[in-house]
Amino acid sequence: MSQYAPDDRVMVSPRYMAGAGDRIADVIGPLIHLFGWHTQHDAATGHVTIDSPDGSVFCDFDPLHPLGRWWTIAHHEPYWQMQFSRQAPMEAIAAVTQALPQLLGDTRHAEHIPITDMPLDRLATLNDWSVEDGLLTSPDWYCRLLHTPDEEITWRAEHALFEKQPLATFTRDAPESLVRNFFAHLATPIAVERAFADVPLSTRYEHSKLITPIRGATISPHVDHALAQLARHRRR
Which InterPro entries match (predicted)? Predict the structure, then answer.
């Protein structure tokens, strides 16, 4: 029996095991409220579509997608597409969507929305991921980012617990800066907040995950989680 109730708020790491979470406002809110992107929302299904002011980029959120591909982001010319599954953390997806206006030349708020220029292999090393022949692999070997430059899908983020559903795919011509932003927010050891009910069942029973409570944190939820991470590392 779990020590947590379904509505308990918890901190979870690693991020790629935390599930999507409920921070959809971070993914689409800045596009709508800061940059004036056009939006349509079907309240009955939760389906949201967003188009850039110049019509070159659209974002589609479909929580009822039969294959669990919740997010699709596409550019019309040149054509490229990104898709994110229902298991991809929204913090990493938000790092992609919030950077889109800058790619289209809208630099408003750029000082608050960073686009990392650090190479992927350097990002991997900083977060203790291994790097070998176009493959970046997490320390626990559950998650990887695969680069296949000769294929239509040139980048693919995969998780061993969700073998039939990649966390993310990026087609040829997708800006590598967006891949870097996604990966930086996927691979970081900094924990994310979730309702316990939203943590995937498969994650709850895996030894590599760490879940700590928000209620009753002695210092702060993030600090308490970081201290628990440190204590676990010392025991290994």
Answer: DUF317_SPDY
DSSP string, 44-108: TTTEEEEE-TTSSEEEEE-TT-TT---EEEEETTTTEEEEE-TTS-HHHHHHHHTTHHHHTT--T
Residue pair 71/168 in contact (Cβ under 8 Å)? The answer is no
Q: Which two tokens mark 44? A: 């009955």
Average pLDDT value for the chain? 93
pTM: 0.94
- Residue 96 phi/psi, 5-degree rounding, is -80, -55
Cis peptide before 200 (omega within 30 of 0): no
Could you identify the residue written with the tokens 């790092």?
95
Q: Is 112 helix (H, G, I), strand (E, B) or coil?
A: helix
Residue-wise pLDDT tens digits, 2-43: 788 999 999 999 999 999 999 999 999 999 999 999 999 999
Which residues pair with residue 38 across a beta bridge?
Answer: 51
